[in-house]
TrEMBL record:
Compositionally biased residues, Basic residues: 401-410
Keywords of the record: Membrane, Transmembrane, Transmembrane helix
Record keyword Membrane present: yes
Protein name: Uncharacterized protein
InterPro entries: HODM_asu-like
UniProt KW Membrane keyword: yes
Segments traversing the membrane: 20-37
Originating organism: Pseudogymnoascus destructans
Segments for region (Disordered): 392-412
């Protein structure tokens, strides 16, 4: 019998040294595999430095979370002992000192698509009301969207809600019971896509947009939606549009984001979740704003329903958390949008006042300085307003040179930075004064201006066109203000076919307009100027009571000027031809006397 040690059969034929070497190598590799596997199990799904926060990964407000088997869109963790009534809304402060137009996407996961907090019941009650009152505005779909609607619906009712929040959503006999509202909805998608989207919109405090590849293979189109709280966005008017057409008002979207967005959508993988945050500042806490202009992209705005004053107390940071992911069967891209409203006072108390002020100023220092103007809307932009009531010329000799907010508040322009002003409870937007002299320096009062009557124009006034002396609001020259303002904002010179004109549905008191006309007339050859560097290219020349006279640099010149008396002649034409009765007038526009580069308008202050 051999004295050779007994070896494993697989090692038979090898020397002892070779056998021991292979055994040692196998033990080493097994140990490495064990350590690596154990370590990998500790890595949370989709974790990156920009991914879900520690609070989100571990539950909400310290709630425990138990891992469960994955859905087709990834793992969903059950929140143990979750209490929505005591859960504070997430605080998002996405302020940056310099604004750059980018996708700004970060990683997230399925657990953070839907977020619950103490506002849940009030919010879904609001949604149910708006769905009942405006069904076709907040719910909609097109042919071809049914598979995507069904897939999203059943992911929510069967895969996410009852697993993530079993205290709030419970399955029973084919129904999903909403314990909070007492409402039940079928787990299986209803045959009607409208009903399915209504159920989604009535039970969740998120808005949903479903996009599918365009039939022509070029980009993605909006094919279905359930949206109640989007800011100034009427999804029913966007249904069927491509992504680029939906975003056309955004300055430089086509140049910077159009192609990269289309490529990103086409490449987004199933199981990958992305999100981004935006911010704006609103002068009220309204969530339902589909019919309001909250971005000054087309120049159209309304003077109705503006607050009497703009103060810290009635101003809010509005932030949308926008998540997107792909459905595996239909291939649809789903946007999930959660809206947060934070009082500006809260933002300041949390220590973010200076960051917000810097972010406001930073809108005009990034890669799209036009964004400063885009956000300069009566509803969404921050204005530093006086807390006292606006004073007339007699009370304030500099009132005529002081711009107003679109809400009619006088704005004080100081050299201090916005960061300092926020400490005093005020918010600043930089506007450029045009340096016109005061009434006091002219030896005049508002009473004197009002008593002067209308400004006479020369019979050879170069800007008068045939047949424009009739009441323009009933003449063929009437076009809507949307077209005129769009021409201004795009920098295109308006044609004689549309200028001069009046807007037929833009009524406001005309008393202040004549006062301003007479003020400008008394300035004589003093230049009234509009600068390109003002971004908006529209300069406020005079404001009194409810009327403002504006000058637009429509050819994007470095600056354009006319004598103030020539501006007054154009404004007098508007006043004379756009009057409705003895107390009211309509807007709108005429070229300065002898200067087709400076478009003068009278608009509500």
């Amino acid at each position: 019998m051999s004295n050779r040690p007994t070896m494993l059969p697989i090692l038979d034929g090898l020397t002892c040294g070779e056998s021991y070497y292979l055994i040692a190598l196998a033990v080493f590799l097994t140990g490495c595999t064990f350590v690596f596997t154990k370590r990998c199990r500790k890595i949370p799904s989709f974790s990156t430095k920009n991914g879900p926060t520690a609070r989100e990964k571990g539950g909400i407000n310290g709630q425990n979370a138990n891992s469960t088997p994955s859905t087709f869109l990834g793992p969903v963790d059950t929140l143990v002992d979750f209490d929505w009534k005591t859960t504070e809304p997430l605080k998002n402060r996405p302020f940056k000192p310099k604004y750059h137009l980018t996708m700004a996407l970060e990683k997230t996961d399925a657990n953070n698509l839907i977020v619950m907090d103490k506002n849940y019941l009030n919010r879904v009650n609001l949604r149910q009301r708006y769905i009942a009152e405006y069904p076709t505005t907040v719910i909609g779909h097109l042919d071809g969207s049914r598979p995507a609607v069904k897939e999203l619906y059943e992911f929510l009712t069967d895969g996410l809600l009852p697993v993530r929040w079993p205290q709030m959503f419970q399955r029973s006999k084919g129904q999903l019971n909403n314990v909070i509202t007492g409402h039940s909805l079928p787990i299986s998608c209803p045959e009607s896509s409208t009903e399915a989207l209504t159920q989604i919109g009535s039970n969740l405090d998120e808005d949903f947009l479903i996009l599918l590849p365009s039939d022509d293979g070029d980009g993605y189109r909006l094919k279905a939606f359930a949206t109640c709280f989007l800011s100034g966005f009427d999804a029913s008017k966007k249904l069927g549009l491509k992504l680029r057409d939906i975003h056309w008002p955004v300055p430089k979207y086509m140049q910077i984001l159009n192609k990269s967005m289309d490529r990103y959508f086409a490449a987004l993988e199933v199981g990958k979740f992305k999100r981004r945050f935006n911010w704006s500042v609103m002068t009220n806490s309204e969530l339902f704003t589909p019919f309001e202009i909250t971005h000054f992209h087309d120049g159209k705005h309304t003077n109705a329903d503006h607050p009497a004053s703009v103060t810290v107390e009635n101003t809010y940071q509005r932030t949308e958390m926008q998540s997107l992911f792909r459905l595996p069967q239909s291939g649809a891209i789903v946007f999930v949008i959660k809206t947060y409203m934070y009082p500006i006072q809260e933002v300041k108390d949390d220590g973010y006042g200076e960051e917000l002020a810097a972010a406001i100023e930073g809108l005009q220092t990034g890669n799209v300085p036009e964004m400063f103007f885009y956000k300069s809307d009566p509803k969404s932009f921050i204005l530093r307003a006086t807390t006292s009531k606006a004073r007339s010329f007699d009370q304030d000799p500099m009132a005529h040179t002081r711009p107003r907010s679109p809400q009619g508040r006088k704005l004080r322009l100081d050299p201090q930075p916005a960061t300092a002003l926020l400490k005093h409870g005020e918010i600043l937007v930089h506007l450029r004064l045009h340096g016109l002299p005061s009434l006091e320096s002219l030896g005049l009062t508002r009473k004197d201006l009002k008593a002067m009557g209308r400004v006479a124009s020369s019979s050879s006034a170069a800007f008068y066109l045939p047949s424009t002396h009739s009441k323009c609001c009933h003449s063929p020259r009437v076009v809507d203000a949307h077209k005129i303002r769009s021409a201004l904002l795009s920098g295109k010179r308006a044609s004689a076919a549309t200028i001069p004109t009046c807007e037929d549905n833009y009524k406001f008191p005309k008393d202040g307009a004549q006062v301003c006309i007479n003020f400008l007339s008394n300035l004589g050859s003093k230049p009234c100027e509009s600068w390109l560097e003002a971004l908006r290219r529209i300069q406020q020349m005079c404001t009194d009571n409810d009327a403002s006279i504006m000058g637009a640099n429509i050819k994007n010149l470095a600056s354009v000027a006319s004598s103030c008396s020539d501006v007054a002649i154009a404004a007098q034409w508007i006043y004379d031809n756009c009057g409705i009765d003895t107390t009211n007038m309509n807007a709108w526009a005429h070229f300065a006397h002898g200067n087709g580069d400076l478009l003068i308008s009278i608009v509500p202050a």
